[in-house]
Each structure stands twice: as C-alpha cells, then as structure tokens.
Sequence to fold (238 residues):
Amino acid sequence: MRCLAWGCLCVFFAATSVRADEPRYGDTARSADGIGKVYLGREISAVMGWQGAAWLERAEREQEERTDLLLAALELTPGLHVADIGAGTGYLARRIAAAVAPAGLVHAVDVQPQMVRLLEQRAAAEGLGNLRPSLGREDDVALPPAVIDLAIMVDVYHELAYPHEVLASILRALKPDGRVVFVEYRAEDPQVPIKALHKMSEAQIRREAEAQGLVWERTVGTLPWQHLVVFRKRAPGA
Fold:
C-alpha cells in the first residue's frame, strides 16, 4: 500500500494534533490508520516514512497500478510543466519527465528531505535534466505562482495533514488554465486490497476539490484499483 509522508512506506508517525488556528478541521477518536483529524467528514490517514522507498519501485507496481494507462490518461505533450506532488522516489515523475521532454519540466515535490535526496540521485543517474526535485512543506507545496500546467497527486491526497492549505497552494502554482489530477484507491470497491482509510470515493474527492473552486472535468475508469479524477482551475470571474 502506497502512503506518503508525503513519500512512502514503513513506520506510522504519531498523530498530528489539530492546531487552534484550524477552524476548518475537526477531531475524532483516532482510528488505527488515522490521525484523529477530520476534514469535510473524512478522517485523514496516517502517513508512512521514507524508509520503505524500495516499495515504490517494486517490480509488480506496473501490473498492479497500470502506470502506462495512467500516463496515457494524462494526455501529456512535450513542453508541459507538471508538478508531481508527493513524488516519493519519482517513479511517476521520471516517466512524466520523459514524456514532456525536451522543453517540459517536472517539479517533483516531497516533504521528506531523505526522499528528495533519492529523487536527486535517480534523476542524475537517468540523465533527467528536466526533473527538478524540491522540498515542500506540510501545508504548502512551495512552488512559484502560475507556472504549472498540470499537478498530480498519486495516492497522496488522503494523507495530507493540511489538505485545504496544500490544495490552495497547488492552485496558486497553476496557470490560469491549469489542471489538477487526483489518483486515489477506490473506496467504492471492496475488492481493492488497501486499508479503508487509504482509499477515497469519487464523491469525496469531488467534494474536497470543489470546496477549493476546482471544476470537475472527467473521471477515468481504466485503472485496475484507482480513480483518476481530473479538475481544471476555475477561470477568473467564472
């Protein structure tokens, strides 16, 4: 199971407390896989540490998640500027970098310094000069304004401790016609072998994205275990 701190697999961190300046968040009794913090009716899941980075590169991942179908659904073209939020080891970011080369860029953002170092090493080893690992914050992706054509989060959003703030920071980084893609394990499907708190329903994804003013564009149903839900940034004045 992919989780993110924002990066990868291993030891659950301690529950994140709710700060006094977070009126949009509530609290609840902490579940086994959660942090006891609620956003729009959903308990935020616990994150896992960088120590299991190898899991993100497992040989069976392509078969389980069909990354080829995911990339096809993104309709990438050379020259795009893409942000992979919670990029982990760059499993997806490296593939996107190849698709948008030579003029396109991929900002591969993670909040774990150890994961960013792994990203840098892999990008250098593969000669991906258009892949730019960067360190984000727990509540901000820390990207420049209006530079991103497409931002993607793969099995990441459900465990952001500050989903409202992070998504708002992504919107700031988007160009006026930019898009945001959520990829999340399907909560509607009990056959998906992932713990419940690490899944999201399409309805919940749309609820949280639309709370930020994102406009639903399409949902792709070709992936074996995951939703791929695409939103666009609302035009100014719309």
About this structure: Strands lie at 26-27, 34-39, 42-45, 81-85, 105-110, 131-135, 148-154, 174-185, 215-220, 226-232. Residues 62-232 form a domain with the Rossmann fold fold (CATH 3.40.50.150).
